[in-house]
């Protein structure tokens, strides 16, 4: 007997508008942060704004499409996506490195970062597989270990690209999904987490540039011209902004003091121009998003939806936490963009596509009224 098609309810408008608000702030701040750099490098103050607007429109289109497609159809293509990610992650080594890292596939004026889609594909696989595995997830060998191996494999490929940050995001999100799926917290806390910490320390100290970043994070002024430079400029930006900021467009650090201010350190420019009030608003929007994402997961109609919503929400939350922590000097400098706000094509479009999936899950909750404000 054929399964009846799930009845679609209302979307979670809080997530919908929160994402659009973050996206709008991102477009404005990319223009503000990049205008001086664009004139100097590209001879066009709106160079990055035009590209960000284009990517935003593509991202919105991708989100709208995924909002209307039942997320269960993704199961049919998950294994294919898992396989496709492997040659894509390897293909980056055939293209010229950028600042010593091989993370992008260059196609003329366009570039694509395979690691951005891989982190969501891993979430898709875990949600699909754990739903089938059921209670076995509570055991280490038959439940937790297989997912650590799969996630670790993709994280290792990404690590080879010299992208410890996204590799870390994948492993952290893996732990979160395993915990929500029912894995024993004692096994995770006393067995898996210490192993992760030991592995992270090994990879940090095995690469001179990562070791230098860690040491300079502890005291950036010991090498203010090289490894500590970007973090020091971030401190100057945040300090200059104070409570209310210098005003939109009035940043001084973006005038070639901060390297590529529209990318990973855009939060520092927000702090300088919009002050503590602007930074607090950004953080509040992410908190609202995470809270609503958790509610969607709690009310999802099946285990697959619950784990998928958890994974998607976790990816955004972990990246936002890492980015803000880096900019404020709370952890070593690493290249994680601020979701929806930092400049970037593949990252933005893929994040928006994932938002479409999350909103689609919100349309199929057990009780759609639970998601009203």
Automatic annotation (TrEMBL):
Protein's name according to its UniProt entry: Probable peptidoglycan glycosyltransferase FtsW
Physiological role: Peptidoglycan polymerase that is essential for cell division.
Top-level EC class: transferase
Keywords of this entry: Cell cycle, Cell division, Cell membrane, Cell shape, Cell wall biogenesis/degradation, Glycosyltransferase, Membrane, Peptidoglycan synthesis, Transferase, Transmembrane, Transmembrane helix
Record field: transmembrane: 12-33, 53-73, 140-158, 164-181, 188-206, 265-291, 303-328, 340-361
Membrane disposition: Multi-pass membrane protein
EC number(s) per entry: 2.4.99.28
The gene coding this protein: ftsW
Catalytic activity: [GlcNAc-(1->4)-Mur2Ac(oyl-L-Ala-gamma-D-Glu-L-Lys-D-Ala-D-Ala)](n)-di-trans,octa-cis-undecaprenyl diphosphate + beta-D-GlcNAc-(1->4)-Mur2Ac(oyl-L-Ala-gamma-D-Glu-L-Lys-D-Ala-D-Ala)-di-trans,octa-cis-undecaprenyl diphosphate = [GlcNAc-(1->4)-Mur2Ac(oyl-L-Ala-gamma-D-Glu-L-Lys-D-Ala-D-Ala)](n+1)-di-trans,octa-cis-undecaprenyl diphosphate + di-trans,octa-cis-undecaprenyl diphosphate + H(+)
